[in-house]
Design a protein that fits this description.
This protein has about 400 residues and is α/β, with parallel strands linked by helices. It folds into 2 domains: about 25-55 and about 305-410, Aspartate Aminotransferase, domain 1 (Alpha-Beta Complex), CATH 3.90.1150; about 60-300, Aspartate Aminotransferase, domain 2. The chain has helices at about 5-20, 60-75, 80-85, 90-100, 115-130, 145-160, 170-180, 205-210, 235-240, 265-275, 280, 290-300, 305-325, 345-360, 390-410; strands spanning about 35-40, 45, 110-115, 135-140, 160-165, 185-190, 215-220, 245-250, 260-265, 330, 340-345, 360, 365, 375-380. Helix 5 runs parallel beside helix 6 (about 145-160).
Length: about 400
């Protein structure tokens, strides 16, 4: 056996290069449920980094529902949905998910996926197949999640489509491009809540543009579903939007606390994705016990407990925006549980994350390519299980660490 064939050598060299650039990622293994504290290597760390916004991932009612689902349906689905894997639990879940969006999408129907990545790939590539090769244009927000970006790239390659990136904070360039677009199918693709900045897409304005230029609007509301809107139905509820040209995608492993994702759209679009959405057709269905658990999660999200948990989140957001002031770093004006702190350099951000770890906090450093070069950050996220005291203790710690990092950089 050779010690270092060419592919292995390339991998080793490029991993070393990532390490030198302070861009190598490292796994941390937890020994506890997802909550506001985590057990790691025998230490208890306060966590402000998960997407469990409503604090449901370790909710006793969901734990019981999962056990009941396992007893009723077993632990696996056995096949893809179109073979034999589509259970009564999946069907009930899809109907309930569709009911969440019935005021916002006429003749709405839902399709359940095992991950948000698959849902985005299926929606974008499947809808792209409505066009003839070369007769499709795709418009994608520059700061979209990687799954949307990959879906757009794959659809563009399959259908020889033109791809145009736009800045969601100013839509003039998008409008100018669409004015000249003569393609028969046009897709506008955007996150609902941008995952690294926590700001909202201008969905109403994008819908007006889609209507004016006969485009479909694909909205990935991964970080808005469960959090936004009076009943937690997401950004369409918050913005009071109603349109049959919206393709709404939500994630169920964040605020919903479990796993999976879904696409909601007008019935004909969903039927088309069942026929042509390759990630749906060729993936083994999620275990029915997960779908059974999610029915309980949706009940909590839309009920009185969900209202209380969103109120707690909003209180935390207000405390942060009112009381957290930096002298060297910068924060973003976000109305969501995502509250990034921008440090800029990879080295400074890694240093801050290390000092936070030493102080008993788990807030990883986010670096390129997840964010743009020069915008490395601490991505702080809130859970409804955090208390106001938890947050104020973090604020005090961050102010101290900011000065420590500044002094070390100045000394060096």
């Amino acid at each position: 056996m050779t010690n270092s064939f060419n592919a292995l050598k390339l991998a080793q060299e490029q991993i070393t290069e990532l390490d030198l650039q302070l861009l190598k990622r490292r796994l941390r293994v937890t020994q506890s449920p997802c909550d506001t504290t985590a057990s790691i290597d025998g230490r208890q760390l306060k966590t402000f980094c998960s997407n469990d916004y409503l604090g449901l991932a370790n909710h006793p009612d969901l734990i019981n529902a999962l056990a009941q689902g396992g007893q009723k349906y077993g632990v696996g689905s056995g096949a893809s949905h179109l073979i034999s894997g589509h259970s009564a639990a999946h069907e009930l879940l899809e109907k309930q998910l569709a009911s969440f969006q019935k005021k916002h999408i006429p003749k709405v129907r839902a399709l359940f996926f095992s991950t948000g990545y698959l849902a985005n790939l299926a929606a974008i590539t499947g809808l792209a197949r409505l066009s003839q090769r070369g007769d499709l244009s795709i418009y994608s927000a520059k700061l979209n999640h990687a799954s949307l970006i990959d879906g757009v790239r794959l659809a563009a390659a399959q259908m020889s489509a033109a791809v145009n990136l736009f800045d969601h904070t100013q839509l003039t360039s998008l409008t100018d491009l669409l004015k000249k677009d003569t393609k028969s199918l046009k897709l506008i693709v955007t996150d609902g809540v941008f995952s690294m900045d926590g700001d909202l897409a201008p969905v109403k304005a994008l819908l007006q543009i889609a209507e004016q230029y006969d485009a479909l609007l694909i909205v990935d509301d991964a970080h808005g579903f469960g959090v936004l809107g009076k009943q937690g139905h997401g950004i369409l509820e918050q913005e009071n939007i109603d349109s049959d040209r919206i393709i709404y995608i939500g994630t169920l492993g964040k605020a919903a606390g479990v796993s999976g994702a879904f696409v909601c759209a007008q019935d004909s679009f969903i039927e088309w994705l069942i026929q042509k959405g390759r990630p749906y057709i060729y993936s083994t269905a999620t275990p029915p016990a997960i779908a059974h658990t999610l029915l309980k999660s949706l009940e909590i999200i839309a009920g009185e407990e969900g209202v209380k948990r969103r109120a707690q989140l909003n209180q935390l957001i207000k405390i942060w925006q009112d009381e957290m002031a930096f002298s060297e770093w910068s924060k973003v004006s976000s109305c969501t549980p995502i509250q990034p702190v921008i440090l800029g350099s990879n080295a400074n951000t890694l240093m801050a994350a290390k000092l936070l770890d030493e102080a008993g906090y788990w807030i990883p450093a986010i670096r390129p390519p997840t964010v743009a070069p020069g915008t490395a950050r601490l991505r702080i996220t809130f859970s409804a299980n955090h208390s106001a005291d938890d947050l104020r203790q973090l604020i005090t710690t961050l102010k101290r660490i900011e000065q420590e990092v500044h002094q070390k950089v100045a000394h060096d």
